[in-house]
Amino acid sequence: MKLIFLGADHEVTGSCHYMSVGKKHILVDYGMEQGVNTFENEPLPVSESMIDYVFLTHAHIDHSGMLPLLYARGFRGQVFATDATAALCSIMLRDCAHIQMMEAEWKNRKAQRSESIAAVEPLYTMEDAEGVIKRIVPCHYGSEVQVCDEVKIRFTDIGHLLGSASIEVWLTEDSITKKVVFSGDIGNKNQPLLKNPALTKEADYVVMESTYGNRLHSTERPDFVTELAAILKETFDRGGNVVIPSFAVGRTQEILYFLRKIKVDRLVKGHERFPVYVDSPLAVEATGIFEENRWECFGEEAMELVREGINPISFAGLKLAITSEESKEINFIDTPKVIISASGMCEAGRIRHHLKHNLWRPECTILFVGYQAIGTLGRSIVEGAEEVRLFGESIQVRAQIKQLVGMSGHADKDGLIEWISGFEEKPRKVFVVHGEDSVCISFTECLKMEYGHHAYAPYSGTVFNLASGKLEYEAEPIPVKKKGKSAVAAGVYARLLAAAQRLLALVQKKDGMPNKEAAKFADQINSLCDKYQ
Questions:
Q1: Cβ–Cβ contacts within 10 Å for residue 227, how many?
Q2: What is the pLDDT of residues 367-376, one digit of tens each?
Q3: Under 8 Å CB-to-CB from 225, ≥6 apart: which residues?
Q4: Model confidence at 344: pLDDT above 60
């Protein structure tokens, strides 16, 4: 019965934890790394085809984005997630696959123009995304799910994103049962749309995030409506556009909530009928999923509007851009407007086109409304870059750069402390993950020195024995080194290797099958080998 830390250890993105119990192999999240990768991550301790289950805390790509690659490399198990997370993943993973394929196509066209012969393969394809989506098992909040004889789980609303959850996991082996609670990303309190994070009463071990473990949000709830209205008026008076790089799922819907109130209360004097463009097919679909799950997931503030028959994230003047043609037309409309587009860190998607058209215009405002990871284009702009490169072209940064400070879906230090203090008895050990290196260290020390927790911040590769309660291997930080091309098997050949691993895993799982069936299976494998030898 083991717990191995693989991703988002002393880093913020790429969440992944591995557990084994009996002969079962489990992942909790399998996320994509975004921005700068500081430390090397250990690979999965078993082949992808050996993984039986994935427990998914929420749909954000840094927690779910590698699931299609898991499928491409042979995973055929089940992915357990809440109902809303399952619905969001059905669009987000497809969107991520689309971006992977489009970027590979663009790089290959660029390589052809420069007479480069190195072809770029997408990390995974739409077929891979579709494949893993079919493996998702939707679960209700608060319901105990018996996954198998050795494993039971329960999802609890953690208030970070629609469908986000902390996950209670009961593991049983040799008559010993241990309970591990994974916090997922703990939500900020008093958000406009979502409920506050729910607490969990008991656990043997806790794995918790620490994203904002070194900062405090304002003690008073920021008046985002008034602040946003002022930014809109100043920009529109100059004749410019307000461009908002926004996460398509979660943050976009919050911004729509604020804009609806600004519209209804006519707070932008002289520009009351300003148009708002949501230029993201993913955001449009996600907004529909928010509406479908409002009864289970919305907080009291939003539900007051719902009970009055008011859609809290829709209003007159809201325009949705779906096709690429509709997206391109936006920048040829002279009317001052709001453009909300993904991705929130400006690393991919349509937002990069809108930045190209608006960054150089001093009358415009680029308004950031979310966390910008180190190494992302968004972080560079926020930190004062005077020039950036977009689509191979240098663009001067002349627009006003502003942020809605305090607008966060993550709990601050006090919120994290409140959550871990909600356990009736202190867990035997608290593992601190999902935070930048210095934050993980400082928050762990805070838990130990100020609150008496047995806290520890593992690096990737650390192995903990859940049955004995002891560390089996304490990994050291390994700074990332640039990998040579020869170190990575690419494209179709990589899929062939994955298929071979899946076949080996299948054979290993069939130990004890009837002799006649095993002999027939062996003959089929040998026949296939003879064909290609």
A1: 16
A2: 999 878 778 8
A3: 258, 261, 262, 265, 267
A4: yes
Q: What sign does the dihedral 105-109-112-114 (CA atoms) show? A: negative
DSSP-derived letter for residue 203 is: -
Q: What are phi and psi of 415, to 5 degrees?
A: -65, -40
Query: pLDDT at residue 434 above 90?
Result: yes
**Mean pLDDT value of segment 94-119:** 76
Question: pLDDT-based confidence at 521, cuts 50/70/90?
Answer: confident
Q: What's the whole-number average pLDDT of the chain?
A: 91
Q: Model-level pTM? A: 0.85
pLDDT of residue 488: 38
Average confidence (pLDDT) over 293-313 = 91
Count of helices and strands (H, E) across the chain:
16, 23
The C-alpha atoms of residue 421 and residue 417 are separated, in whole angstroms, by: 6
Number of domains in the chain: 3
Q: What is the enclosing helix (H) or strand (E) of 226?
A: helix 224-238
State the Cα–Cα distance between residues 13 and 178, nearest whole angstrom.
27
> Which CATH number does the domain housing residue 65 bear?
3.60.15.10
> Which DSSP string do the residues of 391-444 spell out, in sequence order?
TTEEEE--SEEEE-TT--SB--HHHHHHHHTTSSS--SEEEEESS-HHHHHHHH
Q: What is the mean pLDDT of residues 307-320?
A: 92
Question: Looking at the structure, do residues 150 and 13 belong to the same domain, yes or no?
Answer: yes
* Nearest CA-CA partner of 285 in 321, 260, 327: 321
Which is it for strands 176-182 and 165-173: parallel, antiparallel or unpaired? antiparallel
Is 171 found in the same domain as 212? yes
Task: Answer yes or no: do 363 and 236 share one domain.
Answer: yes
Contact present, 35 and 70 (Cβ < 8 Å): no
Q: Which of 357, 383, 403 is the last residue of a domain?
A: 403
Section 392-399 average pLDDT: 95
Residues 322, 255: one domain? yes
Pull the structure tokens for residue 408.
């966060």
- The rounded radius of gyration (Å) of the Cα atoms in the chain is 24
What residues make up the domain containing 354? Answer: 224-403
Q: Is the pLDDT of residue 486 over 50?
A: no
Backbone CA torsion sign across 413, 302, 343, 402: negative
Pair (457, 516) in one structural domain: no
Task: Output 379-387 pairs: Cβ under 8 A, ≥24 positions apart.
Answer: 379/35, 379/345, 381/346
Q: Decide: 14 and 32 in contact? Cβ < 8 Å.
A: yes
Q: pLDDT grade, residue 257 (50/70/90)?
A: very high
Task: Please report which helix (H) or strand (E) contains residue 173, including its range.
Answer: strand 165-173
